[in-house]
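Preliminary data (for renewal application), siroheme complex.
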Amino acid sequence: MAKQSVEQIKAESRGLRGTIGAELANGDHFFSAAAEKILKFHGIYQQEDRDARKQDRTLDHHQFMLRTRLPGGQLTADQYIAHDDIAERYANGTLRITTRQTIQFHGVLKGELRDTVREINNALVTTLGACGDIVRNVVACPAPTADPQRRAVQDYALSLTDALFPRTNAYHQIWLDGEEIIDDHEIEDPLYKQTYLPRKFKIAIAYAGDNCVDVYTNDVGLVALFDADQQLTGFNLLAGGGMGMTHNNDATYARLADEIAFVTPDQVIAAVTGIVSIHRDFGDRENRKHARLKYILHERGVEWFRAELVQRIGFDLAPVKPMPPFTVHDHLGWHEQGDGRWYLGLHVENGRIVDRGAYRLRSGLRAVIEGFDLPVRLTAQQNILLTDIPPGDRPFIDALLDDYGVRRVEAISKARRNALACVALPTCGLAITEAERVFPHVIDQLETALEDLGIPATDITARMTGCPNGCARPYVAEIAFVGRSLDKYTIFLGGSPAGTRLARPFLDLVPLDQLVSVLYPVLAHYRDQRASGEAFGDFVARIGVDHLRALVPEVWRTAGAFGD
Ligand code: SRM
Ligand code: SF4
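Predicted structure:
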């Protein structure tokens, strides 16, 4: 049978049913290529354990990753505990906080998929729409606040989710009821139509001044603005950001979103829905590498885009309003919420909640969340906030976390605190190199280098991904290591600490064990030549990567350098 395109598979999926139901019952350990594509819309990825596959290719190593959709990264205590139970019962005993405030389970077997989805649904959480050519988890600044105006901003993560959710009964029928009854009227989704979007679509909501969600890297960004009385006036609307690119393919690139317009609170849903429909109608349906909204913006321009949007939404758009400069708050440590209660932000290295030796993060989190009934919020930096804590409980929570060896942010260097790495090996089928598993050691080396240089407290953001798709948003980091070929990385430098400028390629094909040593002369130059208070990324942008490249040993400039 000829290979079907993703567009054909979507068109024939009968409201995202495809052959998933039938294939669940066929006794195989895996799904067909076509079913696999539709499965993604249900928040489920077919994967293999690549470590195990390397060891024995004669065995079947298929397993599944499930991603729960958590708008704004919010969960109740019971929902968190349900995730923890599921990780133990069906997955690999870990929970993985993602860079979009969701939780992933890895290592679920096909025969247990239905039970896993059912248990997720029992906790009133869904995986539907967490992946696929559709609006993904809506990200929002998670910092708890008692201020109703600021809470209203976070509530847009929920109302946008509702407005942009796929209208299909397929998920319920396949996973929960086990019976497929097709209502003809729901086969064509009112927004997504029969073929859904050409590609994934991402939305983030930030408060003006705090770019903790990397708002410029999203297809749509909303930046909340307040007047002098702290009343929400509306949002600056951004569009056309994205990170994914492919090595040696100049037609693909990372891009920051353009500033499009200012919208009032009652215009937000219509404006964002209008943009989703522009992507639906103008996105490339032939070439998936060119199908993101960012290419529409780049090729047709902001003026065209604004005019098309106005025509679709039926009201004029006001110009973008001035915004204060962004910084990034990671919300770690103890903070007052403004209602007499507190929240505690805990660092989770690369988002992996796991017990390792004396550092029993998973058990410690469970004990505290269950014991004190604490609602949870996940951050877009893969960390966790425990919220609604009465002041009197603080010492008990601290003591309990100490019992489990859970490190507090004060004990963590700035370099580690800011670091992000994607999942990569062994589960990601697209990984070229390691990321999550090796990045802690790279950060060890970075810490040592900064200490040797006498600047241990440098506030620097480094990120690593196992391929150029950019899942840890490397191209806005001050230092980025992007998997290039076996154990070798491209180094990018010079993103702004606020996530508002793209990094530039610096060196190519640098082996894992030399990533930090090759940067040592650049870090030394930064120590000696920086302006007062100048961040590393801003220093790189001022001096220029070409100039800085001349500082590294000759071998790197000739072997793996980008041309000047
Ligand atoms: Fe991603 C594909 C993991 C955030 C850009 N991403 C994947 C897959 C599903 C691999 C695959 O298609 O088979 C990875 C699964 C790995 C695994 O084993 O779990 C994967 N992406 C992740 C996560 C888990 C990274 C993390 O360590 O936290 C993040 C899950 C987000 C979520 O909860 O929804 C994740 N991915 C991102 C981001 C960052 C963001 O959205 O803020 C990006 C860059 C922004 C963007 O979309 O431009 C991102 N992921 C991609 C791409 C490139 C898309 C493109 O435009 O070219 C792919 C590849 C693809 O879609 O074909 C990809
Ligand atoms: Fe996989 Fe690449 Fe994304 Fe890392 S950046 S999770 S290697 S797709």
